[in-house]
């Protein structure tokens, strides 16, 4: 195995860890030796992912040929990103994480002219304010120790626009400015900050949207140059790499995992 791709001795917090992409990220980071704190508003779902990680001793399981190694323990902690008190309580129990992956997000799909400002507020609190509050509490530990990784999961819809996702795209685009500013402010402390933007990805969330808008998945698939939807593992692989020492010179970047549907 190439040097610099292990995460032994590192602790990683992944919000939205019970979701499809979040769980895939947890699996990849655990396979590289990180200790996982699986964070989600769905406490039972987070506990299920932590139990899965703890029950497996080798590899990624689902991905053939991936690097393998002994897994460190995983724990689950519930957190409600709409509630500053819940965020503070979570940080008190999360220990001293070296890696913080902001995977949680919420989307309400509707034409902007018909959208409800109450939905805007929900998306702002979960997609942008929550990551800001969480990072503010956990970042000093990283800078104090002289090593850290911040990963923000945004969306290609925030980069290129997406019909029906005006407020969602706006809140996810806010992560761009936050991540780039943090990249500048923390570089001398050896903390990197990057954004990963999934394109059309086959998740339960997308399937629910497709149920309301039949034919959406087929349309998206035809528009992707690689002629398939992304998988949670496609996104997780980039996130895991950005957390390693091999990616130590990458910071302040916005990267798409989109099968070529967007090119920058």
TrEMBL record:
One of its GO terms (molecular function) is oxidoreductase activity. The keyword Oxidoreductase applies. Pfam families: adh_short_C2. CDD domains: SDR_c (cd05233). Its EC number is 1.1.1.-. Keywords: Oxidoreductase. Gene3D superfamilies: NAD(P)-binding Rossmann-like Domain. Belongs to the short-chain dehydrogenases/reductases (SDR) family. This is 2-hydroxycyclohexanecarboxyl-CoA dehydrogenase.
């Amino acid at each position: 195995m190439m040097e610099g791709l292990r995460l032994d001795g590192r602790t990683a917090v992944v919000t939205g860890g019970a979701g499809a992409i979040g769980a895939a990220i947890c699996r990849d980071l655990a396979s590289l030796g990180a200790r996982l704190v699986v964070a989600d508003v769905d406490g039972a779902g987070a506990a299920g992912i932590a139990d899965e990680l703890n029950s497996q001793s080798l590899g990624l399981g689902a991905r053939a040929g991936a690097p393998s190694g002994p897994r460190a323990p995983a724990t689950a902690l519930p957190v409600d990103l709409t509630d500053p008190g819940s965020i503070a309580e979570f940080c008190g129990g999360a220990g001293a994480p070296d890696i913080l992956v902001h995977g949680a997000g919420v989307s309400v799909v509707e034409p902007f002219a018909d959208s409800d400002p109450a939905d805007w507020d929900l998306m702002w609190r979960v997609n942008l304010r929550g990551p800001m509050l969480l990072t503010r509490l956990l970042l000093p530990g990283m800078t104090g120790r002289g090593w850290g990784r911040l990963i923000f999961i945004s969306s290609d819809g925030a980069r290129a626009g997406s019909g029906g996702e005006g407020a969602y795209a706006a809140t996810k685009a806010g992560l761009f400015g936050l991540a780039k500013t943090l990249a500048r402010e923390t570089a001398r402390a050896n903390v990197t900050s990057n954004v990963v933007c999934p394109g059309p990805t086959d998740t339960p969330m997308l399937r629910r949207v497709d149920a309301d808008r039949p034919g959406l998945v087929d349309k998206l698939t035809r528009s992707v140059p690689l002629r398939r939807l992304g998988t949670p593992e496609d996104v997780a692989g980039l996130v895991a790499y950005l957390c390693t020492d091999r990616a130590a010179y990458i910071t302040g970047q916005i990267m798409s995992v989109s099968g070529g549907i967007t090119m920058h």
